[in-house]
């Protein structure tokens, strides 16, 4: 069975489906802590919060099914998407879209991963309507692509990275629209890898 809930008012959510292709769709009217969202039989996952959205547990699906996590830009100063430590967001080969009205953070131990021809899209300050909107990784947090798709990170201000790793066939694009792309761990290890790399920053 699928999960499809619109205009929910909840502080926390733990979501799971078992059926083949069963999807998860949740549209929350306020702040949300997502404890987990797992589509065991494969199925699209979409969770939208009218901000902020905290991802406190794993978000997992199979096959070509996509994952969409959105902290909606509602005009306030808390339109953030925070991914807690040791949280995995993974689709086997589907698109992963992470969007926030302001900042997106990925704590240490975290993994965002897809493969095949999937796209990982990370968009901070989606409407570019104020001076916030950074993407920040911490510790050994990682965005990883296992296939021939795309990693696209676009932030209004700083992009601070620890690990953005694709294969020799992955297209990787990092953009800071008004500021800088920086190395969180000051040069330790390999930070960015892909077959075709584009880095765009102002400072």
Report what the structure shows.
The structure is a single chain. This protein has 203 residues and is mostly beta strands. Helix content is 0%, strand content 49%. The chain is built from no helices and 23 strands. The protein has strands spanning 3-8, 12-17, 24-28, 32-39, 45-49, 53-55, 59-61, 67-71, 81-83, 88-91, 96-100, 104-106, 111-114, 119-124, 135-137, 142-145, 150-155, 159-161, 164-165, 171-176, 181-183, 192-193, 196-200. Strands 2, 4, 6, 7, 9, 10, 12, 13, 15, 16, 18, 19, 21 and 22 form a 14-stranded parallel sheet that branches. A 9-stranded parallel sheet has the order 1-3-5-8-11-14-17-20-23, with no helix packed on it.
Taken from the alpha-carbon principal axes, the silhouette is globular
Q: What's the rounded overall pLDDT mean?
A: 91
Put simply, the count of helices is 0
Oligomer: single chain
Q: What kind of sheet is the major sheet?
A: 14 strands, parallel
Gyration radius from CA atoms, angstroms: 16 Å
For the secondary structure, the number of strands is: 23
| Percent in helix | under 10%
Poorly predicted parts: none
Q: Structural class per helix/strand content? A: mainly beta
The ordered string of helix (H) and strand (E) elements is EEEEEEEEEEEEEEEEEEEEEEE
How much beta, percentage-wise?
A: over 45%
Between the first and last Cα atoms, what is the distance in angstroms? 49 Å
Short description:
By secondary structure, the chain is mostly beta strands. It contains no helices and 23 strands.
Explain the layout of strands and helices.
Layout: E1 3-8, E2 12-17, E3 24-28, E4 32-39, E5 45-49, E6 53-55, E7 59-61, E8 67-71, E9 81-83, E10 88-91, E11 96-100, E12 104-106, E13 111-114, E14 119-124, E15 135-137, E16 142-145, E17 150-155, E18 159-161, E19 164-165, E20 171-176, E21 181-183, E22 192-193, E23 196-200
Parallel strand pairs: 1-3, 2-4, 3-5, 4-6, 4-7, 5-8, 6-9, 7-10, 8-11, 9-12, 10-13, 11-14, 12-15, 13-16, 14-17, 15-18, 16-19, 17-20, 18-21, 19-22, 20-23
């Amino acid at each position: 069975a699928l999960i499809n809930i619109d205009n929910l008012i909840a502080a926390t959510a733990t979501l799971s489906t078992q059926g083949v292709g069963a999807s998860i769709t949740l549209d929350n009217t306020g702040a949300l802590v997502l404890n987990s969202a797992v589509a065991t039989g494969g199925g699209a996952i979409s969770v939208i919060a009218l901000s902020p959205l905290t991802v406190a547990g794993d978000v997992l699906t199979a096959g070509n099914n996509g994952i969409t996590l959105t902290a909606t830009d509602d005009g306030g100063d808390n339109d953030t998407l925070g991914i807690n430590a040791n949280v995995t967001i993974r689709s086997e080969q589907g698109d992963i879209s992470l969007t926030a009205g302001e900042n997106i953070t990925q704590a240490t131990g975290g993994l965002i991963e897809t493969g095949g021809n999937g796209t990982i899209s990370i968009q901070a300050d989606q409407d570019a309507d104020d001076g916030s909107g950074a993407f920040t990784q911490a510790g050994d947090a990682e965005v990883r692509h296992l296939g021939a798709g795309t990693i696209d990170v676009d932030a209004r201000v700083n992009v601070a990275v620890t690990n953005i790793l694709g294969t020799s066939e992955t297209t990787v694009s990092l953009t800071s629209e008004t500021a800088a792309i920086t190395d969180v761990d000051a040069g330790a290890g390999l930070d960015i890898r892909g077959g075709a790399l584009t880095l765009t920053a102002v400072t």
